[in-house]
Specification:
The protein has 179 residues and is mainly alpha-helical. It has helices spanning 3-15, 22-34, 42-48, 55-69, 71-84, 86-90, 93-99, 108-115, 120-140, 145-155, 163-178. It comes from Formicarius rufipectus.
C-alpha cells in the first residue's frame, strides 16, 4: 500500500477523540516544518498549530493537506508519528494489516524455534554423556583391537580433520602399538 492510501485508511483512527493530544500534534507539525526536505511551510505550520481551531479540525486538515501533496509528504508524516507517538503508530489499522502474516507463507522463525526448543544446556548434556561413554569405552578396553579400530576411524578423517593432523594421530597410534 502507498503511504497516501494508508493515511486515508488511518484517518478516522487518528482523528478520533483522545488518540492524539495537542502537544503530540504540535510536535508532529513542527517536525514536518523543520525536517529536510521541508514538508510544511512556515505559514502552513502556523495554520495547523492554531490554538483557536479545534484539535480535530486541525488534524483532519493536516491529513487532507498531506494527502494532496503526495507520497513523500505522507511518508514523512508516518515517520514523525513514529518518533513522537510510537505506541499510537504501532496501533494504527494499516500497521496491523501489514503485520498479519500470509497464511500460505512458512514462518521460518517458528520453524527454527520448533527444531531448537531444547536449548544449549540439553546439547551440552548430550555431548558430555557421549564424550564420557567414549572415554570409558576407550579406557576400559585394553585390547589392541581398540587401536586398530581407532586407526580405521582415522583413515576416514580427511573429511573431518586435516591431513596433517591425521598423520600426527596415525604416528601416535603406531608408537602406542609398538609399546
Amino acid at each position: 500500500q502507498s503511504y497516501c492510501h494508508r493515511l486515508q485508511h488511518d484517518m478516522y483512527f487518528l482523528t478520533s477523540t483522545s488518540r492524539l493530544n495537542e502537544q503530540v500534534v504540535d510536535k508532529i507539525v513542527l517536525q514536518l516544518n523543520r525536517v529536510y526536505p521541508q514538508i510544511l511551510t512556515n505559514e502552513e505550520a502556523e495554520k495547523f498549530r492554531n490554538p483557536k481551531a479545534s484539535l480535530h479540525t486541525r488534524l483532519s486538515d493536516l491529513l487532507k493537506h498531506l494527502q494532496k501533496k503526495g507520497e513523500r509528504h505522507c511518508q514523512e508524516f508516518y515517520r514523525a508519528l513514529q518518533i513522537n507517538a510510537e505506541q499510537l503508530f504501532n496501533d494504527l489499522p494499516s500497521r496491523k494489516i501489514l503485520k498479519t502474516p500470509d497464511p500460505t507463507e512458512i514462518d521460518t522463525g517458528k520453524e527454527q524455534y520448533m527444531l531448537n526448543d531444547r536449548g544449549p544446556v540439553f546439547f551440552l548434556a548430550c555431548f558430555s554423556v557421549a564424550a564420557g561413554l567414549a572415554l570409558v569405552w576407550y579406557c576400559c578396553n585394553s585390547d589392541t583391537k581398540v587401536i586398530g579400530r581407532a586407526r580405521r576411524i582415522l583413515g576416514f578423517s580427511p573429511i573431518i580433520i586435516g591431513r596433517h593432523v591425521r598423520n600426527i594421530c596415525m604416528l601416535y597410534l603406531e608408537d602406542i602399538s609398538r609399546d
